[in-house]
């Protein structure tokens, strides 16, 4: 069963597609990744794993632009996969 990862982001930046590819490479065929681009500048880059907010640019996390931020998502996904 695939874990749903939802990313809400401002549609202009490449960050969503970069994160999507990196997660797909890490978890081939195990994730259902969907992005929701906002039509206006929002400052959003919010990542939900199995319905739980695990990364929030608005909350001070910034983009997923470091290994430690990425590993935080990986850990959340692994936990969700273990419960699936």
Automatic annotation (TrEMBL):
This is Selenoprotein W. The lineage of its organism: Eukaryota, Metazoa, Chordata, Craniata, Vertebrata. InterPro entries: Selenoprotein_Rdx-typ, SelW_related, Thioredoxin-like_sf. Keywords: Antioxidant, Cytoplasm, Glutathionylation, Redox-active center, Selenocysteine. Plays a role as a glutathione (GSH)-dependent antioxidant. May be involved in a redox-related process. May play a role in the myopathies of selenium deficiency. It is found in: Cytoplasm. Belongs to the SelWTH family. Selenoprotein W subfamily. It comes from Bos taurus. The keyword Protein biosynthesis does not apply. Interacts with DPYSL2, PRDX1, YWHAB, YWHAG, HSP70 and HSP90. It holds the Pfam family Rdx. Transmembrane segments: none annotated. Its main location: cytoplasm. The keyword Nucleus does not apply. It comes from the Eukaryota.
